[in-house]
Design goal:
By secondary structure, the chain is α/β, with parallel strands linked by helices. The chain has 2 domains: about 5-160 and about 250-305, 3-Layer(aba) Sandwich (Rossmann fold); about 170-250, Orthogonal Bundle (DNA polymerase, domain 1), CATH 1.10.150.20. It has helices at about 10-20, 30-50, 65-70, 80-85, 85-95, 110-120, 160-170, 175-180, 195-205, 210-220, 230-235, 240-250, 270-280, 285-290, 300-315; strands spanning about 5-10, 50-55, 100, 125-130, 145-150, 155-160. Strand 5 (about 145-150) and strand 6 form a beta hairpin. The longest helix has 17 residues, at about 30-50. It is elongated.
């Protein structure tokens, strides 16, 4: 079974930065986010046994979404300097491990991940996207799952189509349509003013897409299951809805190199990697690497085996 893990680098780094205390390297440099990211990387490889792995990052330059809508993500606070300073550390760790990094100016990591999923090698049977970003749930299929931390970095849940619908109330492919109506406070795009999550879920459940919804609204006959007031709001803000869907839709055709190389556990514990870990003060992780990422305790080993089995069962091809 060939399994590709794609890690949403910025999302996992951000979670690690806020989940861990201010750990430092021997020279006093803050390393908590880099440590948390690397620790999770080692655990993921040990628990999920991928045949291939890739990491996607955002680039600091504005994306095409910002050009389409100037207020896109305008309310997001600036990245903490302590977190930003650790991104190069993670790049150094990944480089030492020979794990490929993918990023592209003008696009978000989400788009890079969408493109990697769409252009996966033919030998790949399964994909697991590791992220804390619910936007990526729109990429979920029977063969592509999202592995999302639920409690710091210690616990996570695997999302398939069923789990996604249970959480958001719509199918994965309908998430952009849902957000086209309900908007997104985190990314700061409007949707249709006055349309909340429950109304958006109901409309998308009935009409599947906003294009079908607007086709019904613009037909000569009256839409009897939508109040006149709501019909007026929807028609008045059609351009905002269409724009919001564009902003919410993850691209799958970013012009970029998409080749992912096979993963060997031996590449994770070379002298180059161990030197990098020593430089950063990751002494505990050195021990874990030499144990193939697993704890010495039988309890933890049993837990890892159960988790691997659960993932294999949930990722079984249909």
């Amino acid at each position: 079974m060939n399994r590709l893990i794609i890690i949403d680098g910025n999302a996992i780094l951000h979670r690690a930065f806020h989940a861990l205390p201010p750990l430092t390297s021997p020279d006093g440099t803050l390393t908590n986010a880099a440590y948390g990211f690397t620790s999770m990387l080692i655990r993921l490889i040990a628990d999920l046994t991928p045949s291939h792995i890739a990491v996607a990052f955002d680039r600091p330059k504005p994306t095409f979404r910002k050009k389409l809508y100037n207020d896109y993500q305008i309310k997001r606070p600036k990245m903490d300097d302590g977190l930003a300073a650790q991104i190069p550390m993670v790049h150094d760790v990944l480089s030492a491990m020979h794990i490929p990094v993918f990023e592209k100016d003008g696009f978000e990591a989400d788009d890079v991940i969408g493109t990697l999923c769409h252009h996966k090698p033919k030998i790949i049977d399964q994909i697991i996207i590791v992220t804390g970003d619910r936007d990526l749930l729109q990429l979920v299929t029977d063969k592509t799952k999202a592995y999302m931390p639920t409690k710091g970095l210690s616990e996570a849940k695997l999302y398939g189509p069923t789990e996604t619908k249970e959480r958001l109330g719509v199918e994965p492919t309908q998430i952009p349509d849902y957000k086209a109506l309900a908007g997104d406070q985190s990314d700061n795009y409007p949707g249709v003013p006055g349309v909340g999550p429950k109304t958006a879920q109901g409309l998308i459940t009935r009409y599947q897409t906003i294009e079908r919804l607007y086709a019904a609204l613009e037909a000569k006959k009256k839409v009897i299951d939508i109040s006149e007031g709501l019909q007026q709001k929807l028609l008045e803000h059609k351009k905002l809805a269409l724009l919001s869907k564009t902003l919410a839709t993850i691209l799958k055709d970013v012009p970029m190199h998409t080749e992912v190389s096979a993963l060997s556990k031996e590449q994770l514990k070379t002298p180059e990697v161990l030197r990098q870990f020593e430089l950063l003060g990751f002494t505990t992780l050195i021990k874990r690497l030499l144990q193939d990422g697993k704890s010495q305790t039988k309890t933890t080993q049993d837990k890892n085996e159960k988790q691997k089995k659960a993932v294999d069962e949930q990722m079984a091809l249909v």
